[in-house]
Amino acid sequence: MASKGTNIVWHDQSVSQEKRWKLNNHKGGVCWFTGLSGAGKSSVANQVETLLNERGIRTYLLDGDNIRHGLCKDLTFSEKDRAENIRRVGQVSKLMADSGVVVLTALISPYRGDRDMVRSSVEEVCSFNEIFVKASLMTCEGRDPKGLYKMAREGKIKNFTGIDDPYEEPLKPELVLDSDNKSIEDLANETVDWLQ
Predict the structure, then answer these.
(1) CB burial readout 128-167, b (16+ within 10 A) else e
(2) How, if at all, do strands 29-34 and 59-63 pair?
């Protein structure tokens, strides 16, 4: 997406990505956890962050609900606003990863095109790892930790992913986590093992 502003010129910085990453003793990158509500994205990403932190890796978790309390609190759940939500989180992730942080995002991010757009942008500066936390709709509805599926089925919530809005599964994610059959701890360990 081109900038709407005019007379904007990129300002080169004196400290390079290489110098930032050397200071960290590791590279930055983005791990983009995607899946249905209730699949376990936030729980897995939170546990992955803990494990990486214990290994001395600088991390930051951008959780979809938390982001909507600040950076994206002006957005609804329309398709257009969801795209803008993902674009904003993608740009923040890119900047943080460029600085040397391993960024973990936990967002439904239901549309493949939006995730592909973020991938394209992030890969200009670092690695982008799409991690599909795969759980069936039946599993997610059974968990329903926030009571959202029940409200969506009752018509109290509109545009709810998996009920009256689609979720487009990743075609070629870097990692697929079987949240139907494995624990949060197992999925987190699997992710960290894969990242090494």
Answers:
(1) bbbbbbbbebebbbebeeeebbeebeeeebeebbbbebeb
(2) unpaired
Whether 86 contacts 34, CB under 8 Å: no
Interatomic CA distance for residues 183 and 176, integer angstroms: 14
Please, which residues bridge with residue 35 across strands?
Answer: none
Tell me the residue ranges of DSSP E strands in 26-115: 29-34, 59-63, 102-106
Just list the catalytic residues.
109
User: pLDDT tens digit string along 40-74?
Assistant: 999 999 999 999 999 999 999 999 999 999 999 99
Q: For residue 123, how far is the Cα from the chain centroid?
A: 15
The token pair at 150 is: 């029940």
> Any residues with CB less than 8 A from the CB of 12 and at least 6 apart, and which?
none
CA angle, corner 173, sides to 171 and 178, nearest 5?
Answer: 100
**pLDDT tens-place string over residues 117-175:** 999 999 999 999 999 999 999 999 999 989 999 999 999 999 899 999 999 999 999 99
